[in-house]
Design brief:
The protein is an alpha/beta fold and 452 residues long. The protein has two domains: 125 residues, no CATH class; 292 residues, Alpha/Beta hydrolase fold, catalytic domain (Rossmann fold, 3-Layer(aba) Sandwich). It contains eleven helices and 14 strands. It has a nine-stranded mixed beta sheet, sandwiched between helices. Helix 3 crosses helix 5. The longest helix has 15 residues. The radius of gyration is 24 Å and the shape is globular. The relative contact order is 0.17.
Length: 452
């Protein structure tokens, strides 16, 4: 085998959903570059990601349902409270273990809701993710901040503990948080506060609560700014104060009246933007443009603080016409195919799995049968052959392997200076007579920094 490559046989967790031969995916694993060159930019580091999601004249189309009842559910307790520390763990019927895991945090103004509200995350199960839906302490029970964020982090530590992760085949290197509204606030806060706002007395003190990706839908972030932003959004009049009064959900959470001078410290402590730094995990923020409960600027400000001030990986999607969740007047926005797939695709990309919109599982690679001749970094690349057997029939694949001659912008090289480049399998058409076109596409991929 060419010296540029290791004979590394790896376990494929989930394959990209596209019509390629399973063996083609398998042999790509045998071509693992060992090139002492700087790493490629990560998912969001090439620039601030921000655009609108629009639905056209037909409006949002409700996504196909994937009922959680069709998957394996296990009821667990992550802490000492038999009600508020419950977690329902769902394992996907079509996933590949160890599973990338999404911890779902429900909304409800920190005073309503429970772990049964999983409609927003059911489709993740059909994409191969494990989903853990949690309860947390609510304000009507007398629990004020930071009890709620303590619970979220306790649940993460519990699920990542060796006992639970091993028992349920959860991949502790691929954990994400996902929440909406009040749950979106808690997920953003958990991601940005890192080791702060953590109470390890509930157990698993030696386990990190840090996650690898975050999705937050319409999150309240800066409580003190909400009313003024709603005025600017033409949702309320200047003399209305739905969030800055003693009975507001935000004031009840903090135990003081938002807007009062003696509540400023509590407001800052509960603001995810207080803790943002460049090391925060990748985050997708989605917010409806017609949200008159939590103003759209709340989500946008979180995104802009993360990217503009600290350069953290951040993506913002304004969902045109959407309100604060779905309602009879504004149905199907948040359960639309567009929003659901944008969310799942972000998690798939950040967690390193591209789970099924119709699965293709790679064959087990036989790396000793993958023979490379020539230099893949040369203009025309190297040639390769791969001998395999399918259903008792022997066959040989032939192709070209192309790798970038150099890569700029060092960002995340391994400690030994080596990096893993993205790999692309290019499969030609033309009735078997279009191999030259595949080489041309492969050359383009190599100039973009991929191995093809």
């Amino acid at each position: 085998m060419n010296s540029y490559f290791k004979k590394v046989c790896m376990t494929v967790r989930t394959a990209w959903q596209m019509p390629v031969a399973a063996s083609g995916l398998a042999l790509l694993l045998c071509a693992s570059p060992v090139l002492a060159q700087p790493a490629l930019p990560g998912l969001c580091s090439v620039g601030k990601q921000s655009d609108n999601i629009s639905f056209g004249t037909g409006g949002p189309i409700k996504a196909a349902e994937c009922p959680a009842s069709g998957h394996t559910r296990t009821a667990l307790n992550y802490g000492t409270d038999p009600v508020n520390h419950k977690v329902d763990l769902y394992l996907p019927n079509n996933g590949i273990a160890p599973y990338p895991t999404v911890v779902w945090v429900h909304g409800g103004g920190w005073r309503n809701g429970d772990l049964t509200l999983v409609r927003q995350v059911e489709r993740l199960l059909c994409r191969g993710f494990a989903v853990a839906s949690i309860n947390y302490r609510l304000t009507p029970q007398g629990h004020i901040f930071p009890a709620q964020i303590h619970d979220v982090k306790a649940a993460i530590r519990f699920l990542k503990s060796s006992t639970i992760a091993s028992q349920f085949s959860l991949d502790t290197t691929r954990f994400a948080l996902f929440g909406s509204s009040a749950g979106g606030h808690l997920t953003a806060l958990a991601a940005t506060s890192d080791t702060q706002l953590e109470d390890t007395s509930t157990g698993n003190a030696g386990v990190s609560s840090r996650v690898n990706a975050v999705v937050t839908w319409y999150p309240p972030t800066d409580f003190a700014a909400m009313d003024a932003q709603l005025v600017q959004q033409a949702c309320i009049g200047p003399n209305q104060h739905p969030h800055s009064n003693p009975n507001s959900a935000e004031s009840q959470l903090l135990g003081c009246t938002v807007g009062d001078a003696n509540c400023a410290d509590e407001v800052a402590a509960a603001n995810p933007m207080t803790y943002v730094d460049a090391n925060d995990p990748p985050m997708l923020v989605m917010h409806g443009t017609s949200d008159c409960n939590v103003p759209t600027q709340q989500g946008r400000s979180l995104h802009e603080t993360r990217y503009n001030q600290f350069g953290a990986c951040s993506t913002f999607r304004a969902v045109e016409g959407a309100g604060h969740g779905d309602s009879a007047a504004m149905p199907n926005f948040w359960v639309s195919t567009t929003v659901q797939d944008r969310t799942a695709d972000f998690l798939a990309a950040t967690l390193g799995t591209l789970g099924p919109r119709g699965s293709v599982s790679p064959a087990t690679p036989n790396c000793s049968a993958f023979i490379v001749s020539g230099n893949p970094k040369s203009l025309n690349g190297a040639t390769w052959t791969y001998d395999s057997t399918d259903g008792g029939v022997r066959y040989r694949l032939n192709g070209v392997l192309l790798a970038p001659a150099s890569v700029s912008n060092p960002l995340d090289a391994d400690v030994d200076g080596q990096i893993d480049l993205p790999g692309v399998v290019v499969s030609h058409g033309g009735g078997g007579a279009a191999t030259g076109y595949s080489r041309t596409i492969g050359k383009s991929m190599a100039t973009w920094g991929a191995v093809a």
